[in-house]
Amino acid sequence: EQGGTANMTMSQWLAHLRLGHYANAMSEEGFDDTNTLKLLQLGEVDQLATKLKMKPGHSLKFSAAVRQLT
User: Fold this and answer.
1) Are 33 and 10 in contact (CB under 8 A)?
2) pLDDT in tens, 19-54
3) In 3-state terms, what secondary structure has residue 8?
4) Are 45 and 66 in contact (CB under 8 A)?
5) Is the pLDDT of residue 1 over 50?
6) One-letter-per-residue 3-state SS of 11-39
7) pTM for the whole thing?
8) What Rg value do the Cα atoms of the chain yield, rounded?
């Protein structure tokens, strides 16, 4: 996969994006690895970012990175 992110844990992937401070919140929502993120529709990715109270710039970065996973 692009960027060598295929075998990363959620925590590692978020750290790679410089969004590591969201790792605990992602885990609390049940997202333990990037495979789960691949199942989300685009609107669901945005909803998740909102639920995690991501800053607008972080949300854009997160959404773009999730799209690259699929």
Assistant:
1) yes
2) 999 999 999 999 988 998 999 998 999 999 999 999
3) coil
4) yes
5) no
6) HHHHHHCCCHHHHHHHHHCCCCEHHHHHC
7) 0.85
8) 11
